[in-house]
Amino acid sequence: xxxxxxxxxxxxxxxxxxxxxxxxxxxxxxxxxxxxxxxxxxxxxxxxxxxxxxxxxxxxxxxxxxxxxxxxxxxxxxxxxxxxxxxxxxxxxxxxxxxxxxxxxxxxxxxxxxxxxxxxxxxxxxxxxxxxxxxxxxxxxxxxxxxxxxxxxxxxxxxxxxxxxxxxxxxxxxxxxxxxxxxxxxxxxxxxxxxxxxxxxxxxxxxxxxxxxxxxxxxxxxxxxxxxxxxxxxxxxxxxxxxxxxxxxxxxxxxxxxxxxxxxxxxxxxxxxxxxxxxxxxxxxxxxxxxxxxxxxxxxx
Length: 301
Ligand SMILES: [Zn+2]
What we know:
With about 300 residues, the protein is of the alpha+beta class.
């Protein structure tokens, strides 16, 4: 009995379905389905000329974690993600022969313009394994500790050329400070060209200027504690922005990518390098970071 009933029900459903199709496809002034409900009312006659209302685009609301009027800039004119090649991996705290990687290696062809991340003071130098370097010292954005007088020292290494003098000189966010190179210990053929960028948080402008970007310094602990507390509340938590790696901090050092994403104007979209040998060395941001609030390969906003 059971199969017969099922068949009967199925047959009824099919008939009903066919009827609906027949009505729906029949067109006409008003489409009737169940006998008394009009799905589409008859079309009214349009006047000869219809005046179209101007559509005013609505600005999307600013997400709560987005930097307020960001004064900081991304550090490169192009974005090819993190270097990862036969010479090693360029993520923050990646294992190295001497310990842990203290910055991030931003993959980019030799000659790519490098931009100052912030309004502050810069000087250039030559530093052995780091090659040609530029150090920039800036007050942090107010929400990330600038309001408490905290400063950041940004250390750009392996430059090809720089126009920054060897004495402290004022620099504006977004200004060109040099080009990507392969100087210092990045000169080997296995290591693809990149910007090595480090960020150190300090309690004052003077302390930031005295930073040599080497070794450990327990005195800087309080300033870094404050910075990490603020960036967690202001940006990381609200944007659900995090690294796959366990840490964004090493003592007074911060992961440069998290600071840039939380403080700077939008970065260029991640693109694939044109040169074959660079393409193979690209690791996307999304291989190391994730966020609910934005696409980490495209950047916030
Ligand atoms: Zn590096």
